[in-house]
What we know:
By secondary structure, the chain is an all-alpha fold. The chain has 23 helices and no strands.
Amino acid sequence: MSQTIDNAPYTAFHRRLALACSGGPLLDGYILSIVGVALIGMRPDLGLSTAEVSLIGAAALVGMFVGGALFGVLTDKIGREVMYTADLLVMVACSVLSFWVDAVWAITLLRFVLGMAVAADYPIATSLLAEWLPAKKRGRLLGQQIVAWYAGSVLAYVVGYLFLELAGPGSWRWMLASSTVLCVVFLVIRRGSPESPRWLAANGRVGDAVRVVEKHLGVRVDGRELMPDPAERGRPAGLRLLLTQPYRRRTLFCGLFFMCQVGPLFAMLTFGPQILSSFGMPGGTVMETLGTGLISLVFLLGCYPALRLIDTRGRRPVIIWSFALMTVPLALLGVWPTAPAAIALLALCAYAFLCGGPNVLDWTYPNELFPTEIRATAVGVATSVSRIGAAVGTYLLPLSLTGLGTGPTMLIAAGVTALGLLVCVAWAEETRGTALGASPAAPAASAGASAGARTARGAVPAQRVAQTAR
């Protein structure tokens, strides 16, 4: 694959494309967080049981599990551009319908379909963005997509708070329907976004790839340079390729670290008011909502130093140290379940800030570790696996708080985070500065003495990086 795209200057075209691609993560953060506020009014209005509250909270995450795997494969087969608008139209329809339904099964179904549409956007948008970005900007711009997620989450709590203050808990229908506005905004922003030249070339449309590069990057490129590496031809496609070496281990790594990260995280954001209430946060509605909104804001702020560190220190050391430190505040709350509300809020904010490392690598890693023909599939599978943990955590958290208590619930969250640490120590690779079309090779060793040395140095030499990821 030509180095034209990897070495291209960063332009207004890249900035607009990054903004357009941020729509999916922003809507995900908004849609998953607004339901936590809406449930404050929905529960008494509809007479929901704890199990029904859990079901509604987890429905979108189950939908993301299905949608990530399904639409990642489709995106690699039919292209990024084709799917780019359809998923937003589905989100619009589900958001509007959410205003009119009042049966638990209907709300659950709409949340499930919304989850499928949001999950579809991840492999579509992040693969498209990764395949257009120059190498020196790729880690930062892919990492900034998760910043959009937390911006959406913070916005959801601000909007939810305003609805609670101005219209009361009975405004939950308006809260669920409010995502329609964001969907329409990003439908407008995405107009005219081009197909990925890497996908076009990999699927035999070299002429189209040449034309789209010349149009949007302003450079002429030899069509022969855009052709995939001959070594890539004749390989099994789709999910089958993910199950071959070296991709099998990379698939497990991306899915498992993502799952161990978002399991506690999504449960916390969806039921943040209930968690803070268990530590004695006063107010019943507004105070817990503001507290959870603050935690969401800290999640967002923690991404900014992590964006710098993944480019200066490397991907591997950042993700390992982040998981190690994230375990501490959760374990503290586990062994001190009677902590004052202020201490609990500070500990959860510390956890949120330290999540920045894994957050900015959620989509950076799968896009850098896999080749063009399975990149969207890999992102979709990683998203699906992660949502298993998120859905289970979101469904079980209110039941655990009620049945086991706050301390054991926090210790379980700490254990899941510690498992993520072990996965990263064993399998995390260094992909900083890698050309997206670099030749494949066996992943660099990531355990034992060599792993320790690499972690201590913060990065591997550039010539070895080029051999470890695409």
